[in-house]
Input
Amino acid sequence: MHGYHPRENARLQDQAGTLVDLLHADTAYPPGSVVLEAGCGVGAQTVTLARRSPDARLTSVDISADSLAQARRTTDAAGLTNVQFQQADIFALPFAAESFDHVFVCFVLEHLRRPVEALAILHRLLKPGGTLTVIEGDHGSTYFHPDSRAAQRVIQCQVELQRLAGGNALIGRQLYPLLVGAGLEAVHVSPRLVYVDASRPDLVDGFTKKTFTAMIEGVRAAALEFGLIDPEAFDTGIRDLYRTAEADGVFCYTFFKGVGRKQSSATRATLPS
Ligand SMILES: C[S@@+](CC[C@H](N)C(=O)[O-])C[C@H]1O[C@@H](n2cnc3c(N)ncnc32)[C@H](O)[C@@H]1O
Output
């Protein structure tokens, strides 16, 4: 599971720093609103959410006590006082229905065996008229120059391992049907393309190398153990991914951000029974 190890934590922090504007520029919660962040991990998104909505009150939950401790250290170091952390399982959250004005979930559904059920639970926690925001990646959206079948093959190893663990590394493309299926209204999904060439050294380093390629490199042992690939082919694929970070290389990846609203009481009242 992502988010548990120091190296993985550093990767998530790098990823969050590099992608803040792309992913968060259109998310700010009004003063006084009560917001749930489900699966906050080490707090990589929490810091941005809390900073961008200084007068909202954030409750950030995660199933991992170690990640929460790290998240708390990070928000304390940032001087944020509008976040409280709580250890909880998304499938057994200790909150009453309609407790939150808004809910935010990032890079969590991809790891869950039952993402539809998770969204239905989060939907129930929203007050009428509240919003549910979900951000997910989709590894099938990866393309690059120079093109390389070996590189695509190592990415496929990660996709397959995540599938074997009960997750879905291709979930970004499904956000619209998932949110609609969970009962949300006015669902809008926007693709967020990360385009990286040598004119953006921050993204070459922070995204192509330290986020994406580091993540794929991290599954080497598991991919070999499951017999998905042999060591030489894996190392060639990783070398080709790093090759895209050179002066003439280009790397593209698309995140998906979906926002849906819970039906308001006014709308409900005017609907024919
Ligand atoms: C890839 S991390 C993403 C963390 C954070 N949202 C971010 O964007 O950096 C996924 C997180 O989901 C958490 N998680 C997985 N299953 C969960 C569950 N059933 N309930 C609560 N948290 C869960 C993991 O502990 C992990 O911290």
